[in-house]
Amino acid sequence: MKIRGKHIILFFVLFLTGFILVVNYESTDSGNYDPLNRLNSTWAQENELRNQIIMEQSLNKMLQEELRLYQYQVRELEENLSTVNEKSEEKAENLLEDIERLRKIVGQVQVTGPGIEISLEDSDYLPNGANPNDYIVHEGHIQQVVQELYVAGAEAIAVNGYRLRHSSFIQCIGPVISVDGNISSAPFIITAIGDADHLEAALTLHGGVQHQLINDEVTVRIQKKTNILLDSYLTEG
């Protein structure tokens, strides 16, 4: 059979095509190149990264919620502490005020301020044949005034200049009065420091102490004072 030129050309074309296919196959096989696998791998990486981001966001959200909770608890503790401090300070102030008031009542400290002065005198009128003891000031009269003044809020009281304390005693000795062993005679001046208007109103109530003293033939005079000074029960010297 006679080989023609076109057969030779066709042979070379087929040979070259086969060679190219073999080379491409080997190259592809040696690199394990698979577009679908490459796409799947890329998607898996992106999906893993996305999941990590979502987890980080969830964790951050949880941490923010915990932080807000801690901040709320801190504010609550601060408010409670502030309230406790205010209440403690208020209690301390009230306690100091009570102590100071009690020190005044028991006569431990000198007291100055406005108040009233009450004068109790024996009656100027003595009917014929009457008992003189019924027309003089007795310890009970002084005690009535003192008790009413304390109830009305007097801070400090003195009788004829003798400062009273919680354990003071007033006793009649004939025509004179003993105040904690100090002898005084009429007129008896009872001095009280406090709200002058309130103290006077307490004594002059209808049917009150002043009315009872007048019925007992005791002369009563009440005078307001802008400033009174009462020394302590025992003056240091």
From TrEMBL:
Keywords: Coiled coil, Membrane, Transmembrane, Transmembrane helix. It comes from the Bacteria. This is Division initiation protein. InterPro entries: DUF881 (IPR010273). Pfam families: DUF881 (PF05949). The chain crosses the membrane at residues 7-25. Residues 60-105 form a coiled coil. Belongs to the UPF0749 family.
